[in-house]
Amino acid sequence: MSRVGRRVCSVGVVGILAAQLVATPAYGQGTREEQFWLEDYGVTEAWETTQGEGITIAVIDTGVDGDHPSLEGAMMGGTDVSGGGDGSGGPVSQTNTEHGTLVASLAAGRGEEMPEPEEIEAEDFDDLSDDEWDEWFDDFLADIEEIYGEDWEDEIDEEALDEFYDTRVFPGIEDAEEDESDEEVDESAPWPERPAGVVGVAPEADILSLSLVLEDPNPYGPGTEDQIAQAVTWAVDNGADIINMSIGSGSQDWPESWDEAFLHAEQNDVLVIAAAGNRAAGHWSVGAPATIPGVLTVAGVDEERNISEDSSSQGIAVDIAAASEPLVGALPEGGYAMWTGTSGATPIVAGAAALTMAAHPELSAQEVKHRLLTSADSAGADGIDPEFGHGVLNVDAAVNGSVPEFNAEDYDTLEDWIRVHRRTDTDEQDSEGVPEDSDVVAGPEGEPRDLPQAAEVRSAQDWAGPVTLGVGALVLAALMTLAAVHLLSRRDTN
C-alpha cells in the first residue's frame, strides 16, 4: 500500500532522507538547483578565477546567525549598534529578525556538505516496533510537506518512498555499503555530489555583521538614523572592503548626519552597495541610502530578467539589476526560506564585487564599480535605464572580461556633492570675495569692511549730473536736425 498520503515530523537524518526522494535531488530549501543565478549570471565561470578569498563584506542589517551550517567559517566578527544585541552582530529580535542571515547567505554562504551514504545505516530503524516505525514515517512525510509545500507529491518518487517504508532501507544505501572500493558514489545514485545549503556568490569572502533595529522607535536605544551612521563608520574602521545595505527608506533625501559616515567610506576606498527598494513596500522611487552619490544601487529582476513588478523601485539612481525573485536563503537556527526583493539582489551584487576585487586587487572601489556596470548585459532603454540602470549583472564578464577605460569624471562622488549642496550661509558669504579692481580693502577677520566716505559719495554725484545734462542736449539737437531734413525733403517732392 502506498504511503505517500501519510503524514509526519522528523529528527536527525530526516531532512537528508527527504532530500533524496525528490525528482531533482535537493536538500531542504537550500539547493544549488534553486540558485539559478549562479549559472545564469556567470558566477560559476568566475569561480574558476576566484571565490572571493581575502575580501570582507560588511552586512549592515538585522544581524547574522554565524552558526548556520551554510555560514560556517564565513563570520570574521561584528558588533551591535542597536542596543538590543549581544555585541557580536547576531540577530536582534524585531519584525524581520531573519533578514540579515538571508542576506549574508547570498553574499558569502558556504553551502553544506552532504553526508556520505554510509553514515546512515539500515539498522538505524530496525530497533523500532511497527507502531514506532509508522509514527516516525508519518512525521517524516509531514516534514517533506513542510519543506516542499502542498505540491510535494508531484516532486516525490513514490516507488522509492514505498520501498523505503517496506524495507526501512533508504534507496541507494545497500549499494553503497556493498561497494567497498574507494570510488565516489556514482552520479546516477540518489545521493547528489553537489553541495547542499546556500552557496553565496563569493563563498570564500568573509562577513562582518553589524546588527541594528529597523523599527522606529527602537525599543532598545538609538534611532535608525544614528544606528546607520555608526554602523557604516564601524565597518570602515574594522576592515570592510564592501558594505552591503539591503535596507532603504521612502525618502530620496538622507540626514546630514550620514554625510560624514558615507564620506568616510568613500575616502577609505570602501564600496557601498544598497538596495533600490521594493514597490510592494510602497517605495516606487529609489530611496536613501541608495540615492547617496557613490553608492552602487541595485534593482531586481525575475528569473526571465524582467524587472520585478513588486520588488524593484526605479529612478535615476539605479546602477545595475540582479536576481530578486525567486530567491532561497538561510534562516537563523539552521533553516532555509524562499524570498523575494532587492534585499536579495543586493548581496548577489556584493558577492560579485568581492570576486572582482579579489581578481583585480590593484583596482580602487570606484574602478570595481566601473567593471560591474560596464560589463553588465544590456537591458531596458539605451543608455542608463531608470529600471535596469546599466543592465543585468554579468559576474564572469566583470571578473574576467575586458571593459572600457575607467574615467573618474564619469562617476559622482559624495565629496563633490557635499561641497555643492551642504554649503552654509557663512560659506556663501565668504565665497563672494572682493573685486580686484575695487578700492575697498577687507579689514581684519571679524571686522566689517570700511564703507565709502561721504566725500567719495559726493564726488560721484558731482560727475553724474553734468554728464546726464550734456548727453540729453546732444540727443535733442540730433532730433531737431533730423526733423528739419525731413521737412525739406518733403517740400522738394512737392
CATH superfamily of the largest domain: Peptidase S8/S53 domain
Q: What is the CATH third-level topology name of the largest domain?
A: Rossmann fold
Query: What would CATH call the class of the largest domain?
Result: Alpha Beta
Straight-line N-to-C gap: 130 Å
Structural class by helix and strand composition:
alpha/beta
Calculate Rg over CA atoms.
34 Å
Which strand order spans the largest sheet, edge to edge or round the barrel? 2-5-1-6-7-8-9
What general outline do the C-alpha atoms trace?
Answer: globular
Helix count equals 15
Helix content: 25-40%
Mean pLDDT figure: 77
Strand segment tally: 11
Largest sheet: 7 strands, parallel
Uncertain residue ranges:
1-30, 172-194, 440-494
Topology pattern, helix = H, strand = E: HHHEEHEHHHEEHEHEEEEEHHHHHH
In percent, how much strand structure appears in the residues?
Answer: 5-15%
Second rung of CATH, namely the architecture of the largest domain: 3-Layer(aba) Sandwich
Task: Count structural domains.
Answer: 2
